[in-house]
Amino acid sequence: MLTLTCPHCGIRAEETELSPGGEAHLKRYGPGDSDEQFEAYMFARKNPKGVHFERWRHAYGCGKWFLAARCTATLEVFGTYPAQVSAPPEPIIEAIRARRPGWEAGQ
Ligand SMILES: [Zn+2]
């Protein structure tokens, strides 16, 4: 079972206490952008076997949104962090690189 630590309240929560919110760090497109950019924003999502950044909400706890970096193949969690950032914090990137040598952001 997937277990994530909420960065807001510090509680280690099981997957059943959380609500998934999809891929994290999406670049939003809207009026004025091309149809292809808007289509990609609306419908195209990564579905990697490996490192993935995701949005989660501590639904049966504090109720706040946060982001998590984890491996979709092994459920290994590299870290969680507040949702008010546009890119993964450096300690999260370092934790991923320490356990997945050769991994590069954007894979
Ligand atoms: Zn919480």
UniProtKB/TrEMBL annotation:
Protein name as catalogued: Sarcosine oxidase subunit delta
GO BP of this protein: tetrahydrofolate metabolic process
GO molecular function: sarcosine oxidase activity
Pfam families: SoxD
InterPro entries: SoxD (IPR006279), SoxD_sf (IPR038561)
